[in-house]
Give the backbone structure.
Amino acid sequence: MITICTFNIQNNFKNYNKNKSNEIVDLLKDKSIDIYNLQEVYSKIDKDLKSIFRNLSYTINGTYRFLIPTRFNEKNPIITNKKVISQKTYHLPFLPSLLKRIMTKVEIEDDGKIISIYNTHLEVRKEKVKERQLKKILKILKEDKNPIILTGDFNLKTNKELFNKFIEELNKLGIEHVDVEDKTLKISKYHRAIDHIFISNSFKLISKKRITDLDISDHYPVLIKIDYKK
């Protein structure tokens, strides 16, 4: 069984203190998370997380969107206790928006199988930019022959035609959307998620839930458990 979590931790650079990093790690320990995919990880929290994970059997994988780590320079790390075979950061289309967007990829070995893990955070406002980013992600996934786990803050709900077309295209690749059936952005008026997890149909879904008792972000973490189909 593999436990997966996606969590937009919120970039509160000015108000950050180390307790936030400790709570992020406590969630991992409490839920025995194997693949922990975070978004909006900025330099201050990245430094503290690396220090904490140095004493644990986990690696933090992924690079920043820009070369220089500033307040607005985030990464989407994949934190895992599995054996890492390779890692890569893809740069997604972003113009005319000024904020670069990336997708982190890690190949892991588990139970004799190679699995591709992806983690991303898409454009907030411009629909045309989101469309181009989704097309780039689809192109990357179509070329991947491994079982796939894709997570991230997509800034899209399941009532959006653009996102449903993306789901349909992933279905053609044998990759299924896990619907958490409620909001993941706390301030949202609607009971629809913007943080999503997709899994190859070679996995079976065991359980899914939102973690609603953390106050360190404006998002709820999404947690699922999967196993291999026999």
The chain has four helices and twelve strands. The domain at 2-228 is CATH 3.60.10.10 (Deoxyribonuclease I; Chain A).
